[in-house]
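Reproducibility note. Readers wishing to regenerate the assembly model reported in the main text can use the exact inputs given here. Chain order matters: entities are listed in the order in which they were concatenated for prediction.
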Amino acid sequence: MLEIKNLHVKLADEDKQILKGLTLSVPKGEVHAIMGPNGSGKSTLAYVLAGRDGYEVTEGDVLWNGESILDMEPDERAAKGVFLAFQYPMEIPGVAGLTFLRTAVNAVRKKRGQDEMTTPGFMKFVKEQAAKAQHRRRNAEAPSQCWVLGGEKKRSEILQMAMLEPTLCVLDETDSGLDIDALKIVSDGVNALRSPDRSTLVITHYQRLLNHIVPDKVHVLADGRIQKTGGKELALELEKSGYAEFTGKAA
Amino acid sequence: MTEPTWAKVHYPKIDFQDQYYYSAPKSTSAPSSLDEVDPQLLETYKKLGIPLKEQELLAGVKSSQVAVDAVFDSVSVVTTFKAELKKAGVIFCSFSEAVREHPELVKKYLGSVVPQSDNYYAALNAAVFSDGSFVYVPPEGVRCPMELSTYFRINEKNTGQFERTLIIAERGAYVSYLEGCTAPTRDENQLHAAVVELVAMDEAEIKYSTVQNWYPGDKNGKGGIYNFVTKRGDCRGHHSRISWTQVETGSAITWKYPSCILRGDYSRGEFYSIAVSNGYQQVDSGTKMIHLGKNSSSRIISKGIAAGRSQNTYRGLVSAHRKATNVRNFTNCDSLLIGDKCGAHTVPYIEAKNSSAHFEHEATTSKISDDMLFYCRQRGLSSEEAVALVVNGFVRDVLQHLPMEFMAETQKLIGISLEGSVG
Amino acid sequence: MNVAIPKTKAEQALTEAFAASASKLPGGTAVKSARNDAIGAFSALGLPHRRIEEWKYTDLRVNFKDVAPPAIDDATAVSAEDVRAALGSVANVDVHAVVFVNGRHRKDLSTPGAMAGLEVQPLAGALTSGSDAVTEGLTTTTGPRSDATIALNTAFMTDGAVVRIGNGATLDKPLMVVFVTAGPRAHLTSVRNVISAGDGSTATLIEAHVALQGAATGGQTNTLSEVTTGKGAALTHIKIAAGTNAAVHLANWNVSLGANAEYRGFQYTSGQALARNQIHTVYTGPGGKLDLSGAYLVRGNEHVDTTLVVDHAVPQCESRELFKDVLDDRGRGIFQGKIIVRPNAQKTDGKQMAQALMLSPDAEFDSKPELEIYADDVVCGHGTTSAELDGDLLFYCKSRGIPENEARALLIESFVGEALDKVEHDDLRAALSQYATVWLNAPRS
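Running the prediction on these inputs yields the following structure tokens for the assembly.
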């Protein structure tokens, strides 16, 4: 279970407060969506959960399965099961997608006390997970340069998510820049990973993703705080009325 | 001659009177079995993680396909695969043996690429060199049946190393030569002033690969090897080809410019380099591609990685002679900076003395990306693993040109060299 | 180890010429003393030669042999029409003009009156009256202090423009400072401009070095522009060196950029026997933006050298360079461009490109772009290329019915055009484009 308690976050280099007392919990097995206008602190939340530099937590805490993760390095968190699907996935120039995947899988397995995977074992695992996430395997085989187009990079994020077997998935505006087909493929992948021992936090600006990934709860984030929480119907309301009500409140 | 001062390196004056120019290992006869090989030496190989056939060789595994002529403190200790090479007509032996057995070849080619008056350190080498390696691949399409390899190690205190290497590929011949360098920890600076000469005749090809991980000095910049070597290849024949690939991770100071004189028409020179510097290391390295032959071409790919308080300079020259028409060069020099206390410098000279020369040079310098490192760490890699992965991606274009035997070792070596470079 | 190098004829002639003319050069005690120091520095330095790294490709000991007598109080008769003719297409650009003939201000040829926010004064007057801004500049020049060409300029300078653009001023048209070489006798002309662009000002300054039809060949021009831009100033600076009289042209720009200032420099050079264009720029505050570019047209035995240093001494600055050389006959083009990023000059963004187009088998291009980087959070790069006209493109043009000559001209113009496009002033860009066309169509020697 993810518990975010009264989280206050500012930029490390600037005197700018972004999260101002955010409280939220996502029980195991549930998918929660966070929606909010631009600049509300959505991406900041994702980065703070994953442990990116440049942010300073001034108050509050983040507990994952009862343990505070704020002092942990990003890779320690990854080993604890935290996975962040990036809004803009990266490629490491010169490193093939599969090489990267294998390096990551083995790094995480080592930290989890599991054996590193052999090449055949790894390939088999890729195949299985790709099938599960309905991920066409040729994507994984292509060198990283070929992942650039359209939703390929996003799909590779979902494959990585499947391969690293996380227990907390945070998707940071994974829908941005995707056409409807790609959106469907990515959503199918996320849905395939829904399980009773996994918590998922879907961060999005638009409601359309939530047609495909149906959340258990929807939270509205504005001005650094959760302004409203409701069921999946809240997303539809927001689609109609927009965020004006909440940003107005903030002002 | 005076000591040169133009490179971007700083070091205390070397007392050349204080160097022992020649020091023989304690046992003077070549060991016939592993038991006779210094166990400390095997230990050093092991520590440096050389999972190569060379280790098997030292252990006496006869099926390995790499021939090693190990040079320890200037006198050859082990030489293998003589018979097989002899069958192909290839001569691969220590320099001293070559002088004894093949004086006519040595006389004909020694100093023909790097004359003794070439530069300060080459002159020093010519005056005092005691041994080294000699390779001769006979004409008419002989392909050397195996990768030739020599391990150099500096292990006597205060010993300057002055090897001489001479490789000749006759018409249509092919040879690939690997040079791996390791040195155990020593307090005082040691000087290495080797000279390597390559001669490629018509349609011959020489591939020369180096992995250099000598002692770089301690974390305060004390000690370490001074690596001032002269390496030059002469593409003497038409359609000849010389390719230098180097991975420089060691030495306190590296100062070397493996070069190609592209004398033959349609000859080709290549230089692929990875230079990693950390701590207080100083690297000033690059190449010269001297185009004298018509339609000759060259390619330079240099990847410099500077971390810690190191200084990493690429210095290179590409020139086309007035009569060398239709020559081509493509150069790409990229530098990656890790941390704000290091420096990366690029000093290329491009001289086109006729209009048909087609030269392209590009260089970039940038910082290792924080975003990329964070991405890797989010996927579970430790900060050192993340740096190693990003850097190995950065150098991929060069890694590809290393012989298979060296690739895995090199990737590991780069990681080791950058340990402690990020907080 | 220092071996005394015997002085060349030119070095001796320069020292002697100074001794002979010192008393006639403008300036009070402070200026005289600066001149004496400068000639002393020059005597010690001598003419730069190929053993000096920065002068590797341009050896003045070899290429600068005969020294013409210094131009002092020269009274060659020149009419406004002559100046217009010498300027060619550039004469049609609407500017405020200040004209100098053989290193001496000519009020009669200059545009009367002034523009709002602009003060222009001849340097000779400023030297004589001991203007602080000018005399201080003599000792605090931002350029390399150990440079012989700058030392010579200080020693021999006779005149030039002292330009002050007021804080917040926007000049409604460009200021053009014209230096004309004229008359049947060759001279050594030394001029200096001291330009300061006030905080938040916007201006375009053109510096044109031209020769009258029939001017003596073999003279020398030594010109230095000392440029300071204030905070947030936007200055466009264009230098035209278009000669017909086989002269030696030694030029320096020493530019200092204030915080958030934007400096766009462009240089056009053609018709010089030997030109050395040195540009030295330094940022003094964050947020500075520098854009340097140039087009050089070289033929015959001409030798054109561009040597520049961009010194990122402070964080968050940007620099861009684009230089294009067209080299014909036995023409020789040299580009040396060094980008320095000092420790702590984080967030530096520097990019440089130098390209040569070789029109003749005997042309030569030497390029030495250099990056010297001591800060890590930077994006820097350089590129350099040297090539003939693209055969495929030429063929493509011809296959579309364009005759060989026209196709070549088209491709050359397009190559030069990329640099000319950096000139934002429409009329001036058109005029320079016209220069290039005239150059291309000139009868071949």
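We highlight two features of this model. Chain C has one domain: 9-388. The mean pLDDT of chain C is 90.
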